[in-house]
Amino acid sequence: LYSAWIIRDQLETIKIVTDLKKDTVPQMINQLRMARDLDSLRFEADKAIHSDTKERSDQGLYYVSTHVYGLDLLNDPVTGALIAELTDLLNGFDYANRHDHVLAWDSLSERLKSAADQMAFEAIALKNTSIDSVETDLSKSMYSSIVLLLLGIALQLLTLWYVGRAFIAPPKKMGLHLKKLDTARPDPVLDLKSRTREITSIENAINRLGAVLAALALTIQRWNRQQGC
User: Fold this and answer.
1) CA–CA separation, 171 and 190 (whole Å)
2) Is the Cβ–Cβ distance between 64 and 86 less than 8 Å?
3) pLDDT digits (tens, 9 = 90+) for 83-98
4) Which residue, of 94, 131, 162, 176, has the fewest CB within 10 Å?
5) What span, in angstroms and rounded, lies between the C-alpha atoms of 47 and 90?
6) Distance CA 142, CA 229 (A)
7) CA 142/CA 147 separation, integer angstroms
8) 47 with 59: CB under 8 angstroms?
9) pLDDT tens by residue, 103-156
10) CA 28 – CA 17 distance, rounded (Å)
């Protein structure tokens, strides 16, 4: 019963961790994906403003214009405001006058990078706090349960050994001793080395019976010798 209780408890804990992973892992992946998307927008916008050729600049502008409105980043107040500022900066962007936007872009780029890093950090922290810590606790719990289970098994084996020695083996020895009391050469005094009061009292009674039978046998032998004479 104790072993079954431990196994049931561990199975319930594993189920909790599994459910937590189902809820946490998709959230963590979404956070990392949003951080990647934000960083990709920042990279392409930086290419549009700082490129040495208009062709590469147009590539960056095209990427931003085609990807910016399909992102979940717009639903977040912080990243949504940054993306709105980015689109305002790039609307009507003129490659020939790109140096006019450098200072404003450098400031916005730093804030975009900080937001992407913060998202990635939160995703990793979410994994560490909600998954790794639980798995660590589960590992410790399972280790403790295994140790307790082994101790319980050892205690059960010790108990069975004691019960066998104290209550099962003595009656068997008593039966064998009683069978040999009527033989010509009975066993010596019964010594069960038992520490239980009940077994000791029965042992003493058997030894008294053996002493009486031995004395009676000796008396009968003497009487037979006298009759022979």
Assistant:
1) 12
2) yes
3) 889 888 888 788 888 8
4) 94
5) 12
6) 84
7) 9
8) yes
9) 889 999 999 999 988 888 887 776 666 565 566 666 666 666 677 777 777 888
10) 15
